[in-house]
Amino acid sequence: xxxxxxxxxxxxxxxxxxxxxxxxxxxxxxxxxxxxxxxxxxxxxxxxxxxxxxxxxxxxxxxxxxxxxxxxxxxxxxxxxxxxxxxxxxxxxxxxxxxxxxxxxxxxxxxxxxxxxxxxxxxxxxxxxxxxxxxxxxxxxxxxxxxxxxxxxxxxxxxxxxxxxxxxxxxxxxxxxxxxxxxxxxxxxxxxxxxxxxxxxxxxxxxxxxxxxxxxxxxxxxxxxxxxxxxxxxxxxxxxxxxxxxxxxxxxxxxxxxxx
Amino acid sequence: xxxxxxxxxxxxxxxxxxxxxxxxxxxxxxxxxxxxxxxxxxxxxxxxxxxxxxxxxxxxxxxxxxxxxxxxxxxxxxxxxxxxxxxxxxxxxxxxxxxxxxxxxxxxxxxxxxxxxxxxxxxxxxxxxxxxxxxxxxxxxxxxxxxxxxxxxxxxxxxxxxxxxxxxxxxxxxxxxxxxxxxxxxxxxxxxxxxxxxxxxxxxxxxxxxxxxxxxxxxxxxxxxxxxxxxxxxxxxxxxxxxxxxxxxxxxxxxxxxxxxxxxxxxxxxxxxxxxx
Lengths: 260, 277
Known about the structure:
The structure holds 2 protein chains of 2 kinds. Chain A is an alpha/beta fold. In chain A, about 30% of the residues lie in helices and about 25% in strands. Chain A folds into 2 domains: about 1-80 and about 150-255, P-loop containing nucleotide triphosphate hydrolases (Rossmann fold, 3-Layer(aba) Sandwich); about 85-150, no CATH class. The longest helix of chain A has 18 residues, at about 165-180. In chain B, helix 2 packs parallel to helix 7 (about 135-160) and helix 3 runs parallel beside helix 5 (about 90-110). At the A-B interface, helix 2 of A face helix 7, helix 8 and helix 11 of B.
């Protein structure tokens, strides 16, 4: 496992981060197998897949929080990453206002913090305790903390959890705007392809390996995607399919092709 | 009454006790807050117990007891942090084993070293009124080191406490900061021993922050108010102990507990009132 910040001939000039043949086992269980992906500035890449498919593990490897067993992560030099974790549990024993929480990230000026809070429509939360705001509000606060670092790459682990449907659409819209406006790359994990569709350039359908990937409208009709999520997940079934050469057993392993 | 206060304040050992107690309370506020936030009270207990082993080793080797307590505490803190990072044994169990084995070992070694008469009770429950000139200097030096380090690393330490992964991605060296925090706690516990003793050290660290929790909006407020409550407990505790002629360490802990209870009940009363309204 190399984790290189150096200019590398393997890293295309435009790539912010590039993962090459990433493999990871937890004990005997293979969680990730031969994953490749890359993210460019202004590009939104969405990882979808069932629970336990290795999405969060992959993101943690890309962030450098855990090491892959094999494979390479290449990062653009001095890449500034804004990360929005899946969960933040604030001990009720610690008093912490939203403003103070945001100040932890960097020595941000109050003005910066104010502007970001306004941008995300949560200016009223500034003096609230982090432990009592709602799930949806917390998600926005976490996004604010990620944005305050003026990141080149935003990594979002299920940004819309705990938010009602209309709020989710709004949030994805916001992420899409931010990405265009600030030309930052976005890597996010999501469960619902339909909600992220309009805000995504590339979808990677993950179940321990990359089942299929491409434009969202393409992936939503891909048999591999339908296989994972069931036909009901895709109401707008289109005519196009590609030749699907593998199936999954219950653990997500690839079965040998039955007919070729 | 006034007369006895006047006598108290002109007595050297009372002045020493007051200065040492107040200085320690000032750093115990922020450090204790970390212990509360990170649920490390059992960790503090273990270090305090290991301090007794430090005393025993100091006596046997004839080295400075204060120094051997500090070294022993730092060593234990280091071992615990490293084991905690790598081991699959539950932290709770690990701490339980180390706390009690080091306490037991300390007591047995002290009993065997019968060439020296040791006032075990003084180490278990503290003996603030017997602190010497040298003890005071040790205490003030540690307080100075700890408060400077805390000041420099404060934001980083709060950041890793709130969310270690976020802090790591934002460029902080989480492992190093953890170690710094643990070393500061170990140092503080090592010198606090003289004041409240092995068995009560953790309470001096935990009760003031717990009392300050509901008076605070931010981590900084909680830490500062905890220091204030700690100072108040030491001053009142020392006065009461002197006045009623009872052991100082336990009296300080009782005063701190009473302050905690008073604040807890006024806050929950206010809380239930506002909930109704």
